[in-house]
Design brief:
246 residues
């Protein structure tokens, strides 16, 4: 191959790579972004080892919609109000380099409190109905046993939560929080094992919202080993592939 053809081929390859990276950044910034669940705060809805897509367009766009949180503008543009019960990815208010994922429980103006493990919204106790026991036996040293409930939010949205008991630390008995304007109150579905707005997270500004969790595209347990390829197949949670998130 002549030097001229080699140079032309190299140039085409570079252009192709740059274009592919540009398209990937556009998709990641404006449409869908992948996330991995690293902790158990959202059991039973989301499990450690789940990989999911978050829609970036649902709540509009802020600086945190873009790589590195570039301060291109303030606030949000094309903003749509989140709904109570949405599962959202957001930037930790105390360290915007860290992503959190929780359920939106309190909207601006709401009063939120937990008393004896029961959630109260604007003074009304949220209905919950007990289901079968829930066991976590992956990514833990010994199995953990939980009470499982269907919780019905004021607008009628039903989702699953789990609790060890109604007497766990300060998370089961809190002060009454009044959600400020342009802020949200977030809670994990694993109510006794979640650092959320009851603890260090506090209220989450709407600017910190990254997007709404939509569906799981891949999931694996801890039953496999990277150095033992023959175990990979059994570690994959096939039933969770392309599972919608409610």
């Amino acid at each position: 191959m002549s030097e001229e053809k080699r140079g032309s081929s190299l140039k085409e390859n570079i252009i192709t790579i740059v274009l592919a990276v540009f398209i990937a950044l556009i998709i990641r910034s404006f449409w869908l972004e992948p996330f991995r669940i690293p902790s158990g705060s959202m059991y039973p809805t989301l499990q450690v080892g789940d990989y999911l897509f978050v829609s970036k367009y649902t709540y509009g766009y802020s600086r945190y919609s873009f790589p590195a949180g570039l301060p291109l503008f303030k606030g949000r543009i094309f903003y749509s109000e989140p709904q109570r019960g949405d599962i959202a990815v957001f930037k930790f208010p105390k360290n915007p380099h860290t992503d959190f994922i929780k359920r939106i429980i309190g909207l601006p103006g709401d009063k939120i409190q937990v008393k004896d493990g029961h959630l109260y919204i604007n003074g009304e106790q949220v209905e919950r109905n007990e289901k079968e026991r829930y066991i976590i036996d992956e990514y833990v040293a010994i199995p953990e046993f939980y009470h499982q409930y269907d919780e019905t939010l004021p607008e009628g949205k039903i989702h699953r939560i789990i609790e060890m008991s109604d007497e766990e630390r300060i998370v089961d008995n809190t002060e009454e929080f009044t959600v400020p304007e342009d802020m949200f109150f977030m809670m994990g579905d694993n109510r006794d094992r979640s650092d959320d707005s009851r603890l260090s997270v506090g209220f989450v500004p709407k600017e910190n919202l990254v997007g709404k969790a939509r569906f799981i595209f891949f999931s694996h347990s801890d039953k496999g080993s990277l150095i033992k390829p023959w175990t990979w197949f059994n570690a994959i949670r096939w039933k969770r592939f392309f599972k919608g998130i409610e």
